[in-house]
Predict the structure.
Amino acid sequence: MGREESKLKHMTMEGDHRETHYNVELTLDPEQGSLHANVELLCSSIEQQCSNLEFYLHKSMEIKSITGSVPITYQFDVEQPCSFPFTPDAGTLKIKLTQPVEDDKLLRIWFEYEGNIGVLPWEVNRITPSWVELGFYAPWFPYRPELKQFCYDVQVQIDPGYEVIGLGEVKQLGEGLWHISQKQPSADMVVMASNRFCRLRDAVSGLEVELDYVDVPKWVVEDVFKKGLQALKWYSEWFGVSSSVDMRIVIAPRTEGGGYARTGFVVLPRIDTESYKEQEVSYFTNLAHECAHLWWAHAPVNSWEDWLNESFAEYSALMAVRELFGTGRFQNIIAKKLKRSEGMPPIKGIKRNDERAFTVLYDKGCLVLYELEQMAGRKEFIGLLRKTFQQKVSSTEEFVELVGAEVGNEAKKKLNRLLSS
């Protein structure tokens, strides 16, 4: 597909926006596993105070040009291991501003690059003829964790036989031309494409829910969708209504890499039809965990404080398992988590890239909440979680204080011991 000259340098933002914003022209070639991108990044006033900026970009990308609204120099290091735990295949793009930005101006940086991502070793992000899935795990856009959240507009050009979906509002502009707009600040920029999408739609507790899937029998998808809607209904009753007004669930046609969640956007790996009934509880737990991130996503993700996201989402999923499948199944899962947690380091201080972090956050942290529920009682525990969500608790210190106020000093002391042992 041919490319026209990028129009990004001639674009202006509507109004006086001060949040970080990406404008992207993205050309995808699924047959070749490649992409070409023109990116305009508008940095907020916080970024203006930095003369040295570091971004992560997939190391297979070939930089064509980088320019700025002030003079800059750059270096793309693809030899040193990436320091950010979620982007091991990224190179580090180091940009130096050689002139300060005026106080009343936004910093603008324009990037042009292209390359072949193919399939990552753990299969999460990829560009293949059968499935395109892009996000920050294989950073296809200049990703800077310090930005935390940003808005974006992405124009996607792709073969007309493909449909594009993503994190944000998606519109088809013409044959092979799509637009994704994310007006709510987000921590990722997710783009997906397939030539075989099917979907279901429904609503629950004020949420408009859509499920997109590829290569899964309809009877399986309908059962998954029904159970997912039930989990969302319980969460809304327990924790309060989510701030999202719509939600998209995607069942990707890949077997590896696991699931993940962004605000209002849940991704699950392929469901094996033959084992679905046998593994029904496991599939439901995975879906319920990712759906729970609509409520549990306020804490930092790159430190041990991520337990406030992952442990809470996992225990919420187990609460839903208890409702749907009974206490016996719930207790079986707790027993397995207890066994896996033996000899694990404390939650407090665990590095997010430690190979034991998954067990610590998904199993050991879950057991901490189980103990807390035993101390508080089920009704009081749900009330505690509701206040945790409503107050947007984002640090363990805040949560510990809330436990002290809602459950009592003994519970607070025990929680501190459990987190440190």
